[in-house]
Structure formats: C-alpha cells, structure tokens
Amino acid sequence: MSRARLPNLGWLVVGYGITVLLGRLTVGGPGTLSLVWPAAGVAAAWFWSLTPVASRRRILIDYVALAGITFIVLLATAATWTMALDRALGAVLQFLVMVEVLRRTATSRDALGRPVMANLADLGRLTAVAAVGALVNTLVALVVLLPDGEVAWSDAVNLWTRQVAGVVCLGLPLLVLWHGDDRSRRSGRFGLMAVGATSAVVFGAAFWWFSGTPLGYALLVPSIAAGTLLRPAGAAAHGVISATAAVCFTLAGSGPFSRALAGEAYTSIAQLCAMLIVVTGLSLSLVRAESRQLADRLAERARDSEVRLDEVSTIIETVHDGIVVIKQDGSVPLANPAGLQLVGAALAEQDESPAAGSYRTFHADGRPLTRDDRPSLLAMRTGEVVVQTVTQRADGRPDRVLRVIATPIDGPAEDPQRRVVVVLTDVTLVDEERRSLASFAGIVAHDLLNPIGVVDGWAEALQEAFEDHGVVTSDVGSPMVERVRRSARSMQHFVQDLLAFTTARDRAIEPRPVDLSLLVGELAALRRDVTPAAGGPAIEVSPLPRVFVDPFLMRQLFDNLLGNAVKYVAPGTVPHVCVDSVPGPAGFATLRVTDNGIGIPEGERDKVFDEFQRLQPEGYSGTGLGLAICRRIIERHGGHIWVESAPDQPGSRFAFDLPLTASSLAASPG
C-alpha cells in the first residue's frame, strides 16, 4: 500500500468507526441490534468514491477494514460473537452489491468515472441501490441470527429501514457534498437565513413547543424551502442536519414520532420521515440545478448561435459570389452586396428593382431571357435546382457572363412560403479564358497543320519517286528533303515560341538587381556575331540602369525585341537598332528599343501585342507570339509596353517600364 493511500484509509477507519459506535449507543440492551445505523451512509459514500480503476488489492483492504471495524466495535459494545460476525458479513455483502449495481447502472460520472448525483434520475437510482443493498444485509441477518433467536421476523422491517436511512440520510448528502455540486456557486446568504429560520421555527414547534402533536408533515416545509432556495450542496447539508435532529429528538422521546407506535417501530417511522426530508430537499434542489444548467446551456447555445450568425453574415457579406433569397411572393429577405451588384433586370425578380432596365439578359445561345425563363421562377415552379449561364449586356459596358444556381428551399414553420436561394457567380473572365483557349488551340492546330501537310506531301512525293524509279538522284531528292527539313524547322520554331509564351505566362518570377547594360550588351554582341561580315546589324546600347527584375525573363524579352528589330527590315537595308532609357513613372525606368525596320501601321499598334498576330507582309516568317511574350513579361513586372513610330526615320520604337527597386515591384499591380 502506498503512503498516499494511508491517510485516505484512515478517514474511513475513523469516520466509519465513530458512526458504528454512535449507532451502538442506540441499542435496547445487550445482544440487540441498534435502532439507527449512520455507519451505512459513511461506508456508502466511501465505496462510491472509489474510482473504477482502483486495484483489487486496494478494494480488498477497504472491505477488510470495513468488516474488521464492524466486528471489533460490536464486540466492544456487548454484541455476541454471532451478531458481530453477522453484521460484518452483512456490511461487506451489502456494499459489494451496491457498488456492483451502481457500476452497471450509473449514468452520471465525474472525470475519474465515479458516480455523482447530477439530476433527479441519479437521486432515484442511488436510493434504489441503497434499498437493494439494505435488503441483502437484512437477508443475511435473518439467515444467520434468526435461528439463534437474536432477531425476529418483525425486526426485518426495522433492520432494512435503518440501513436504507443510513445511506439516504448520510451517504447521499456526503456524495453531493464531496463532488456532486458546483462549489463555485454557493447558496445566497438570504436563502441560508430563510431556511435556517424556517427550520428553527418548525423543528422547535414539532419537537419542543408542541411535542407529541402530530406535526410530522410540517417537517417537510424546511426541506421544501431548502430545495427551493439552496443549491444541492446546501440542500444536502440541510438534509443531514434535519434528519439527524429528527432522529435524535425521537430517540430522546420528544416529537411527533415518539408515541406513534409501541416498541422500536417509532424509530423506523422517524427514519422514514428523515429520508423523506432529505429526498424532498435534494429533489427540489436538483431539479432547480438542472433548470439552471439547462438555462445556462441554452444561453451558451444562444451566444454561440449569435456568433455563428455573425460569422455567417460576415462571410455572406464578403464573398464575391452574389447570394439572393427570394420568397414566393417576390420579396427579397436577404441579398448580399455582391448579389445586389451582380443582379440585373432579368435576375432581380422585381420589376421595381433599381437594376431593372439597366441590363438586357440573354441565354448562353443568345436568346433573350424572358420572365418565365428566370432561374428563380423555374426553381420555384418545378421545385428542382436550376443551373443556367446568362449574359448581361448594357450600353457602354462590357458584357458580363453569370452562372446562376437557383435552389428551392422550404420556409420555417412560422412562414412556410417556399423560398429560392439564388447564387450568382461572375464567370466573365472564365468565359473569356475559355474562348481564348479555344481560339488559341484552333490557331495552334492550324499553324501546325500547314508544315505537317508540307512534310506529308513531299514525303509522299519522295515515296512515289522511289516507287517509280527505284533510285532517286540527288538533283530530284535533295530539293524534296530540303522542303521537308524547312517545314520541320518551322514546326520546331513554332513549338519553341509556344514554350517561351508559356514560360513568360506561368513561370514564377525570381527578381533580383540586374545590370541591363551588361545583359543587353551581351545579347547585342551575339546578334552581331551571327553576321560578322559587312552588312551585319548595327546595335547601339546606351548606358542602361540597374533594375529589379527576373534575369531569365529579361534575357527572353530583349532577345525577342532585338531579334524582331533585326529581322523586320526592308530588303537591302542594314538593320540599325538603338537601345536607351529615360526616366519613367515613380520607381520605374522607361526602356526604348528603336529600329529602322518596316514599321507598324498606326491602326495596328494596339493589336501587335496580341497572341498570333502577324502584321508583317509576305516574305517575313514568324509565329505571332514574340510580342505577346514581351507584353506578358512586362506586365508581370508591373510595367506597360507600347509601340510608336521611330523619330526622324522609318521604323518603330518599342517602349516599356521596368521597376528599379524591390519596393517598386511589390507596389505594382503585376
């Protein structure tokens, strides 16, 4: 046994020993049973307080202590050996049964798994367990002591009553006082004073001023007051004190029960009244405690509901999707700001809506959306979820594509009108991207089919030449192979440009300080080295600033611009390119690439940066992706690119902005 266990066992030995001795003080004579048995309450509270995981050795020691104390004290108070052994055995069996029954039936437990009295059902269950345990103890007494004549059949009721009363009047209150009540909530001073005064008056009248008058029913008045005004712990303490007072006064020959019956039956009546006093007070107090707990839970749930409602309201108010609730009578009890913004004449569901007349709404196939076609009316009419994609058009504004989901729901009991929840999602950008992707795929397919057709045609011609002649001479086969290789190179360049476009669009930028003079100088030197002979390109690079950009994308950008400047010149013209810079917007520098090429018509300058735009005349190869790549790179660095005529000469000037510092890049919308 651990040292920490000894003090706890000591409390059992002392408490149980004292109450056994007090019970023995009420014996009628040598060799007779006690009239009251408070020790049963102490033992019940002790064994109920043991945790379910207590070791068998620990429990065995407790039961040995219980039997030993009972046996020794009874022998010391003039009980016979037979009676002492019987009462020790009866006590052990009684509490073995009570503990096992409660282990199987208890529903309210504390954190350690021990039974507690939390509600009226627990009180009833514990009282029933006490009655069962007392019955076992009584049967043991009858079996052992009846043959020796130490008890009679008439003593069975008195014996059973004293055992039940001991548990109910002392054990149950101790259980509540130990760990069955919220000790942070104490009974109010007014309640304590009122209960104390009522108890003093009633008990004084019943046991002193009007002793012998049948006022037993009046003893319930203080218990009702205690159960109504005090918390369970206070009601439990009041019950113990009141029950003890009632039994003690009765044993002293005072009160309404002292002359009720002859013999020992009057003590049983007093103990039954004591049990009624305790159970009444605890019942009322537990019901009130349950009501308070229920009210607290309801209040907490109400607060949680308010918090959740606020959260949901905040979410609804801040989501980008429009949410509109429409009732069957056409009223709109709920609409978030996005819903009010997105809803149009065909979707407002009310002709008097401020949006009415502002928009014209069409189906995805271009048909006007009529009133009967509105998603909310369809959902209201059919009771099914309706999903539509509509287009809103307004004068002077770009078209807006909305995906509308209308879901019918039933209203609450107090307002059973059917409702429709309409969710509107602006899918304009998604629709544009879908159309752009479809167009992109079509152009890619078209541009790849041309060289593939050339390869297939010349390969077929070469095959026919082999079939017709068996041997194809170099003057016949070489031009065919050259055309196949030229088409293959065209496809290769096209695929490379597609990869470059994808890189410029999707690659995560890794900006750092870059010396543009060094980077552009290297690219210019490479261009000059391609055609070192006379007539090669003349590329001038003025001093350029250090910028905060992605060096890989910058190399791709200037390589495209220099390549275009060198390629798109009139026949017989020596390319001349100048790269310089001027101050730009705050935090940016404006870079310029000026050439003497064929130029770009003024009306075509806005289109030149679109994908697959080929504005050059016949005789110039290209995929139409180079300048689209440049625009995407500039925009990802927060800048803007444009084209204008070269000053004082034919050709073009491409100008664009690049950030000078990290803060400039971070503050840019790109």
From TrEMBL:
Keyword set for this entry?
Answer: ATP-binding, Kinase, Membrane, Nucleotide-binding, Phosphoprotein, Transferase, Transmembrane, Transmembrane helix, Two-component regulatory system
Spans through the membrane: 9-27, 33-51, 63-82, 88-106, 126-147, 159-178, 190-209, 240-257, 269-287
Known catalytic reactions: ATP + protein L-histidine = ADP + protein N-phospho-L-histidine
What EC class does the entry list? transferase
Per the record, the major location class is membrane
Q: Which GO terms describe its molecular function?
A: ATP binding; phosphorelay response regulator activity; phosphorelay sensor kinase activity; protein kinase activator activity
Q: Which GO terms describe its biological process?
A: osmosensory signaling via phosphorelay pathway
In what way does this protein cross or attach to the membrane?
A: Multi-pass membrane protein
Could you state one GO cellular component term attached to this entry?
A: plasma membrane
- All residue ranges annotated as the PAS domain in the record: 308-349
The record's InterPro entries line, in alphabetical order, gives: BphY/WalK/GraS-like (IPR050351), HATPase_C_sf (IPR036890), HATPase_dom (IPR003594), His_kinase_dom (IPR005467), HisK_dim/P_dom (IPR003661), HisK_dim/P_sf (IPR036097), PAS (IPR000014), PAS-like_dom_sf (IPR035965)
The protein in question is named Sensor-like histidine kinase SenX3
- Provide the organism lineage as a comma list: Bacteria, Bacillati, Actinomycetota, Actinomycetes, Propionibacteriales
